[in-house]
Amino acid sequence: MLSCARKLLLAMALLAASLSACSRAQGDGHANRQNFDLIQRGRYLVTLGDCTACHADPRRSDSPFGGGRPVATPFGTVVAPNITPDAQTGIGNWTAQQFDEAVRRGRMPNGKRLYPAMPFPYFARMSVADLGAIRAYLNTVKPVHHAVVSDRLPFPFSIRASMIFWDWLYYRPGEWQPHPDRSAAWNRGSYIVSGPGHCGACHTPKTLLGGDEQHRALQGYALEGWFAPDLTGDAQHGLAAWTAEDIVAYLKTGHNRFDAASGPMAEEVKDSSSGMNAQDLAAIATYLKGEESVSQRQAPLPASDPVMVAGAAIYRDVCSGCHKIDGSGVPYLIPDLAGSAAVASREPTTVVQVILHGAASVATREEPTGPQMPSYAWQLNDVQVAAVASYVRNSWGHAAGSVTESAVHSVRESGQGQDSGAR
């Protein structure tokens, strides 16, 4: 028999143990909840950053991050690496510092420099917290054993040491900083566009060495057989006619009253912007509507010009049945050529691409119908395509000059963009 004092001491010890266990359980539950929130945050940021655009190989179904997808650049093709947590072929053995060095500084664990096809100059502006969340999420995805050989550029671009000079010219490290004189929404949009969203990687003109022309930020650039349009408020070539609501609708659904996403942008909407939350989409729109750009205004080709006369006849015969005589199309279904930023772009690449190879617009949950435009390469020769493209780009308020037969021939012969067409 235990004495009363010993019984009391034992009871107190058991109570203390119970309280400690309860406290640990509550603490562990809080930690698990924090980890879950961190992982979910990382998952969202991976969507926002459209990581699958490069790291998901459409020829493989085992993982959206297993790498192996060829990425075309003006200097040749690079292949996206495996970023699953596989220890041998992925990033499973990377430390947090090595992950940071690769994503924000363009340096591999072995010291090799990354090519800017990996948009580390943009990711450099990301916060440490966001980078940690991305790493936390990637650590949870299925490891895929897939060795990728990324070095496929021809000489002399295959010499990665040359990136030292490129980095000196174009890489500017440092996290994004808010502008105190701007709204919270504008600042959030600025962070997304210039950081994890890396919009300028496609929409900013490039130098001969592939670096951004910072003084022309977001003013449009041709790549992969398409022209990523001007995202500024330029009245002639940009998004001046689009409201913030138009931008949000386009990014969320792939369609708005003016346009429909096709080509590379269709993939971006499907895999990235359609998964963004309403606050971030509104922030992007707020930022873009605040970006002004003024280009030198040019006069449209006169309606009496022989090219315009021929183009008008082809348009009435081939195009007006869907896009209407006045180019207005059908809101949220058939693009309004009079208000399309792609039609008004400084370069005719996208217009010619769509006429020749057709286009399949994106289908999203909100807009499940993805209308397709057929290819007219079989019906129209280069002279005729140039004429109708010139007509479209110089009607209904547009003024973009004539499209040459050689420009059409180049797009036809390149074959780029045909996978996005409706055939």
Description:
This protein is mainly alpha-helical and about 425 residues long. It has helices at about 5-50, 50-55, 95-105, 120-125, 130-140, 165-170, 185-195, 200-205, 245-255, 265-270, 280-290, 305-325, 350-355, 380-390, 405-415; strands spanning about 70-75, 75-80, 220-225, 225-230, 360, 370-375. Helix 13 packs across helix 15 (about 405-415). The model is unreliable at about 5-35 and about 420-423 (pLDDT under 50).
Structure described in brief:
With 423 residues, the protein is mainly alpha-helical. It has two domains: 54-170, no CATH class; 184-420, Cytochrome Bc1 Complex, Chain D, domain 2, CATH 1.10.760.10.
List the helices and strands and how they pair.
Layout (H helix, E strand, L loop, with lengths): L3 H45 L3 H4 L14 E4 L2 E4 L16 H10 L14 H4 L4 H11 L24 H8 L13 H11 L5 H4 L17 E3 L2 E3 L15 H10 L10 H8 L6 H12 L16 H18 L25 H9 L1 E2 L11 E2 L8 H11 L12 H10 L9
Antiparallel strand pairs: 1-2, 3-4, 5-6
**Can you say what the CATH homologous superfamily of the largest domain is?**
Cytochrome c-like domain
User: Runs with pLDDT <50, length 5+?
Assistant: 4-33, 419-423
- Number of H- or I-type helical stretches: 15
Known CATH architecture of the largest domain:
Orthogonal Bundle
Beta percentage is: under 5%
Note the overall shape.
globular
Query: Ends: how far apart?
Result: 91 Å
Give the spatial strand order of the biggest sheet.
Answer: 1-2
Domain count: 2
What is the total tally of β strands?
6
Biggest sheet overview: 2 strands, antiparallel
Helical residue percent band? 40-55%
CATH third-tier fold name of the largest domain: Cytochrome Bc1 Complex, Chain D, domain 2
Using only C-alpha atoms, the radius of gyration works out to 26 Å
Order of helices and strands: HHEEHHHHHHEEHHHHHEEHH
Supply the CATH class of the largest domain.
Mainly Alpha
Mean pLDDT: 85
- Give the helix/strand class: mainly alpha
